[in-house]
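Quick one, T. Sequence first:
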Amino acid sequence: MNRIRIMGIAAVAAVTVTVGCAFGGGGKEDDPHTPLVNPFIGSWQAGDGVYWVFREDGTGGTGSALSEVGDDYSYLIWYGQGLGTNVKHNTLVTAGGDTNSAASAEIKQYRFAVNSATITLIPQILTLGTNDYYTIQDDTAHPITLTRQGAAVEKPLSLSNDLIGEWHADWDGEHNTDGNTTWSYKFRTDGTARTYHHAMHQFDNGYLLRGKVLVILGEWRFSDTFGYTASTVTPVVNGRFTAQEHHHGALNWDFQHVASAEWK
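Structure tokens:
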């Protein structure tokens, strides 16, 4: 059980984008990222007979037969891949249900372990306390063991969404004097996102986008010891969108799309 303080760190917030870039231009070097091979892609059966499917496009579902599995949720995984040095955990997050807002979405978080042809999921219970404190507890009484059906699929996700690309972003979080600190984001097709808190730290995360819900999990303010961060986003219009976090300080972000963001 980890007691975690949401220190004014926001995950997905208000995003506004203007292709062109009010901040000027570009990264210092090409992204060194190697696409993340996702171990979940494929079909699985749980011990209770239910089938689980995780698709290459980042969607998934469950059903009593493979033919009955629909598009029930989108998912992300976080291995602690990529940049950064913080302690990392293997985490799966799914988001489904009513995804018109982060508050109404059905978001589930699991710890996972891969063992050849099986994956063990441990549901995690996230309880929001006062002053933005969370308690995260493994539900060890209800583990889920998934057994692969068919051959293993060794490939990254191949996402297609309006966030893919590079952005500059302002937020109303802490760690600044004027309440308007700049970030860089790069949402990739493999379900990872590179982030740089300007003049501070640069690190990678996992993300998913479903409906109007953006979920990020990774390091620093998106750390997996805080639990996932979910925000309600507006559609991208003329290269702009906004989002507001549901918890984690309920911060707002304003994103602008750029051809090449600033990187550390």
